[in-house]
Design brief:
With 197 residues, the chain is an alpha+beta fold. 18% of the residues lie in helices and 42% in strands.
Length: 197
């Protein structure tokens, strides 16, 4: 009898955990619209936690991602299950540094070329800072599509949105060209109050 009750309690407990983990309000019926997102350019600080998948012609990998944005600074932490193998990428102006936790911090003044060399495939890190909040890079031409836009040869699609405070922010994002496909699932956003330009 006790064994049956314990089994029932365990089932209920895990059921509650799973339902709590999947309680992020999503808006699958909301279509992407750049014009309704212009105020997002004004947000000075934001961060998110999620999961990243990157696939190239010869390689692919997945990681947990934590991205913190401040004016003129990006801090991106990539890690495996339970935080194993953490790598921290920091981008400040034209300086990028990569810390793999081994005490040997590498840096370069050519961010995208350096990150490309480290990852083994090209990732447009500067543009991603805008794309992941649902906006094209403001100084580069783009073509709007029904679910996102095309910019600098990359197709950026917002597969699902989620409510964050008063804003609708990306939850599932796909960024791809002929060589690389990046998939991002954002579990939690933290956004500061928007600043005026």
């Amino acid at each position: 009898m006790l064994r049956v009750e314990l089994k029932w309690l365990t089932t209920c407990f895990f059921g509650l955990i799973l339902s709590a983990c999947s309680s992020v309000p999503t808006e699958s019926e909301v279509l992407y619209s750049k014009s309704s997102r212009e105020q997002i350019y004004n947000i000075a600080q934001w961060s998110f936690e999620g999961r990243l998948g990157l696939t190239g012609k010869n390689d692919s990998w997945q990681a947990n991602i934590n991205w913190e944005h401040e004016p003129n600074k990006e801090a991106i932490k990539l890690s495996g299950p339970l935080g194993q193998g953490a790598t921290v990428i920091q981008l400040t102006g034209n300086l990028v540094s990569i810390d793999r936790g081994d005490g040997k911090v590498q840096s370069s003044t050519q961010p995208e070329a350096f990150i490309n060399q480290q990852l083994g495939m090209f990732v447009p890190i500067r543009s991603l800072r805008y794309w992941i909040v649902g906006l094209p890079e403001p100084t580069v031409a783009f073509i709007e599509t029904a679910t996102g836009f095309v910019q600098s040869g990359w197709l950026v699609e917002f597969k699902q949105m989620q409510r964050v405070n008063e804003d609708s922010m990306p939850r599932k994002i796909s960024v791809s060209n002929e060589q690389v496909k990046l998939k991002l699932m954002i579990d939690q956003w933290k956004i500061s109050v928007a600043n005026a330009k």
